[in-house]
């Protein structure tokens, strides 16, 4: 039987839930709705979905809190698309930092949400297979550093853990899964943030700068993440698997 993508909509506005549920169902998707974090948790306790549409502005636990919670639990790999009524760019960046794959500002057309959902699902499924292998729980070695894909910590040569933000982890993870290969900004945006490269076109530069600081990399003569003029960035050292956890 052909797989039908299952979407969970979490929004406290009943009209929006009904409108989106009807439209997405009409366009071939399976839809479940939840009015708040409690209903979302109750449903996800015994079910899995292909993507979660999560409203930011909700009473009780807001979308940012729920996004962080999802990313720390068993649904950490489920794509999340956030809805926000705010136009503040910091709100959008916060959502992406906490692990959202995309966001859409209200008001929006239902067909645009459908297009975004399809784009996020497509990008998620286009990730190279080796991206999923390292998520099984391994220590990945590059130079004097190791990345723990379970705790999402960076470990230095003495084993000291350095916490990474969600965005920093995803960017480092993409470099590690494509070592010694030049990646341009569009590719990095798509792989780390799951969206078209029309937003935060310079945010990758900012993230690279922060990641270099975590790695103790000199921005003028970096050892790990090198800048390739007019092309992008490259993790210039090979990557090895240290161990596989049972």
Automatic annotation (TrEMBL):
Cite the Pfam families for this sequence: Response_reg, Trans_reg_C
Subcellular location(s) per record: Cytoplasm
Residues carrying 4-aspartylphosphate: 55
> Which residue ranges hold the DNA-binding region?
137-237
Q: Which InterPro entries match?
A: CheY-like_superfamily (IPR011006), OmpR/PhoB-type_DNA-bd (IPR001867), Sig_transdc_resp-reg_C-effctor (IPR016032), Sig_transdc_resp-reg_receiver (IPR001789), WalR-like (IPR039420), WH-like_DNA-bd_sf (IPR036388)
The keyword Mitochondrion is annotated on this UniProt entry: no
List GO terms (cellular component aspect): cytosol; protein-DNA complex
- Sample GO molecular function, one term: phosphorelay response regulator activity
- What region holds the Response regulatory domain? 6-121
Name recorded for this polypeptide: Regulatory protein VirG
> Which BP terms in the Gene Ontology apply to this protein?
regulation of DNA-templated transcription
- SUPFAM superfamilies listed in its UniProt record: C-terminal effector domain of the bipartite response regulators, CheY-like
Keywords tagged on the record: Activator, Cytoplasm, DNA-binding, Phosphoprotein, Transcription, Transcription regulation, Two-component regulatory system
Span of domain OmpR/PhoB-type: 137-237
């Amino acid at each position: 039987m052909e797989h039908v993508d299952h979407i969970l909509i979490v929004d406290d506005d009943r009209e929006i839930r009904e409108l989106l549920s009807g439209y997405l169902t009409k366009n071939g998707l399976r839809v479940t709705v939840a009015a708040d974090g409690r209903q979302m948790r109750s449903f996800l306790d015994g079910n899995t979905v292909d993507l979660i549409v999560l409203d930011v502005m909700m009473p009780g636990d807001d979308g940012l809190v729920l996004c962080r919670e999802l990313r720390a639990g068993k649904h950490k790999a489920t794509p999340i698309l956030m809805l926000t009524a705010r136009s503040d760019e910091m709100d959008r960046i916060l959502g992406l930092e906490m692990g959202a794959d995309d966001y859409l500002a209200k008001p929006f057309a239902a067909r645009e949400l459908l297009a975004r959902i399809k784009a996020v699902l497509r990008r998620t499924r286009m990730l190279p297979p080796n991206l999923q292998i390292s998520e099984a729980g391994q220590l990945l070695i590059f130079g004097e550093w190791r990345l723990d894909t379970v705790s999402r910590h960076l470990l230095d040569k003495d084993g000291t853990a350095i916490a990474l933000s969600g965005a920093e982890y995803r960017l480092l993870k993409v470099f590690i899964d494509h070592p010694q290969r030049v990646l341009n900004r569009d590719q990095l945006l798509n792989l780390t943030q799951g969206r078209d490269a029309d937003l935060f076109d310079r945010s990758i530069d900012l993230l690279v700068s922060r990641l270099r600081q975590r790695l103790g990399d000199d921005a003028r003569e970096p050892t790990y993440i090198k800048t390739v003029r007019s092309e992008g960035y490259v993790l210039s050292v090979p990557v090895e698997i240290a161990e596989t956890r049972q």
